[in-house]
Amino acid sequence: MTDSRALAWPAAPIRTERLVLRPSEARDRPVVIDLNASPEVGTYLGGPRPRAELERDVPEVPGRRPGFFVADLDGTAIGTVHLDPHGESDPLGPDMPAGRRAAGRTHLGYLFLPQTWGHGYATEACAAALDWFTAELPGEPVVLYTQTANARSMRLAARLGFTEAERFEAWGAEQWFGVRPPTPPAA
Description:
Mean pLDDT: 88
Strand order of the largest sheet: 1-2-3-4-5-6-8-7
Number of helices: 5
């Protein structure tokens, strides 16, 4: 994927109260495979991918690009956060409505291991990544997709300052499309 945004890695890993957001390394490959093979993680993402397919397709160092962070807790990878070009890898591709494509050039995504859910790690990691992004590209909005049935993700989107732009049907379920303005409202 070619990234048309002018993103550069932070000079140092991003540290939050409990986490470190850092570039991925070869040691993170098993976690990336686990995340994508997990039935729980894949519940609202079209289901898990077959482990054998992931073992074949995931590169030695997964997600090696600015905007892809591994969320590390006490030296152990527990998830990923990514700020990717919106529309370039979207499953709707050329069929994506122009309004969605124009809403923002960057899409926020995240995956966390199920045993870490409910502890606020996704909120902490996504907020830190969004703060970095806002400093790196001031004035750029960020978009987010989730199924409306994914209550956790809907709450996270609200906590991060995303507001609903549209609901639509895709992949057999109602989808929520939100936009976070360049300067989100104070929480």
